[in-house]
């Protein structure tokens, strides 16, 4: 499992590594619309991998809207206009969450200790009197001026010693919790909901008030199934698309 491999410090699966290499080539313009995209055979030889691995990497890029695969005509890079400037991001497992963090940048600010916002506490059925450390960050994609997310992160009060060691310029807090506190990710839950931009969020995201946003609420549990981090990320509807794929079990 990807989650277990990353928790043990192992490298991500090869298909994610190859997908990242190709993604970077596309976003940098090295592979652009109209260019001949490498064939599956070429990619197998270049990376020393199987066709199955290549196809899984290409499936990731297709899900993100970066390429189109057409039977009989091969693979092509989709023009930026066809993608509508929207980030099509797979966030289905720990490996992809980490990849998302590497492909974008965020700087957090510490906002002190407090209780969880009432709505979040009710949604996850968390005790209302617990102390949490709150952080806020605005996430950007390289080369873009408009934010693709504003994230409110909450770290449980029992990790006060760990919080003091955070580098707020790093993209993920849960990896720093793992690094400085020895806390291992056991599982992550994720809830996705369409919401309207509040007055505050509309300013931060630079969108109209009450425009469509995608809120992703994640809860991070350790191997003893104790909740230790919560993140609520708000994405402008026109700049972000959540992507995933499912295989048939037949």
From TrEMBL:
Kinase recorded as keyword: no
Domain HTH gntR-type: 12-80
UniProt KW DNA-binding keyword: yes
Classification via Gene3D superfamilies: Chorismate lyase-like (3.40.1410.10), Winged helix-like DNA-binding domain superfamily/Winged helix DNA-binding domain (1.10.10.10)
Pfam families attached to this UniProt entry: GntR (PF00392), UTRA (PF07702)
Keyword annotations of the record: DNA-binding, Transcription, Transcription regulation
Protein name (record): GntR family transcriptional regulator
